[in-house]
Amino acid sequence: MNLPNILTISRIGFAIVLVYLLLLNTLVGNILAAFFFAVASLTDFYDGYLAKKQGLVSDFGKIMDPIADKVLMLSIFYVLVHIKMVNGWMVNLIALREVGVTIDRLVCMRKGQVVAAERAGKIKTIFQMTTVSVILIYLIFKQAFFSHSWFIQIQSSYLGWINVFMSITVLLTIASGISYFQNRIKSLNRKALATFFATFLGVGFFPVAPGTAATAVGIILAFMLKFNVVLYICVTLALLVVAIPVCTYLEKVIGKKDPGMLVIDEVVGILISLVGLPLSWPIVISGFFLFRALDMFKIYPINRLEGLPGGFGIMMDDVMAGLYTNIALHIAARYAGLI
Fold it and tell me: Distance between CA 179 and CA 173 in Å, rounded?
C-alpha cells in the first residue's frame, strides 16, 4: 500500500470522524469538523498529485479515489439533511448519481476493466466540497454568534446562498453523471448495453441471490424518489416499458428462459410494491419479504403470467407480485397500523 493509496483510503476514515463531530452540534465539534474536512479535501488533491509525480498510479487508486470521494461527501450531506441544513431530495439526487456510477465501476472492475474518474466528475467533487465548506462556516458562525445582531441580519442571506450553492452542486452532479453514462454507452455494443440495463447496472451479477440484491437496490431507489410521487410513477413505468423489449432481446441472445442475471423485474416489482405508501421501516421490511415470497412461490395468477413469451413473462409476474404486495401493505397500513 503506497502513500497515495493511503491518502485515498484515509478519506473514508475522515468521513466517520466528520459524521461524529457534526452530530455533536457544538462549536468545538463544528470547528474540528471544518478542520478535518479541509485535511480530507487536501488528500483528494495530493493522492493524485503524488501518484503521478512518483509514478505510483495504480488500478486500485483509480477505482478507490472516486469511491472514497463519494463516501466522504454523501456521509456529510446526509448528516446535513439530518440537522436540516439542506433538502433531502437534493441529496437523494446526488446519491442516485453517485451510487449508479459506483455500481457501474465495480461491475467493470469485476470484468477486469478500470474506469477512471472523468474531468467532469472531479469538477463536481470540487464544487461539492466548496458547498460543504460554506455550510460548515455557517454552522461555526451560528454557534459562535447566534445572538449577535449582525449575524441575525445576514443569516437569511447566508442561508439563501447555501441554497444557491446546493442547487448548482445538484446540477453539476447530474450533468457529470449524464456525461459519464454517455461515454460508457458509446463504449458498449448492443448486447452489452442491454445487459447493463437489464442487470440494473450490474446488480444481476451479484454472486449470491441477485434477485434479492436487486430488490434491496430497488428499495434504495424508492427512497430516492419518494419526494415526488409523480416522478416515482414515471420512473417505474419507464423502466417497465423499456425492460419488456430489452429482456425479450436478451432472452433470445442468451438462449435461456428468464436468465437469473436479468433483475430489472425485481426492481420494478418492489417499486410497485411501495408506491403510494409511507416508507417507514415496518412498511419497507414487510414489503421486502412479502414481495420476495410472492415472487418465489408465485400464487395465481403470477404463475400464469410467468409463462408469457419473452420480456412479458419476465416482467409481468413481478408486476403482479408487486401489485399484490402493494394492496396487502395498504390494507395493513390502514387497518393494522403498520406505519
Answer: 10
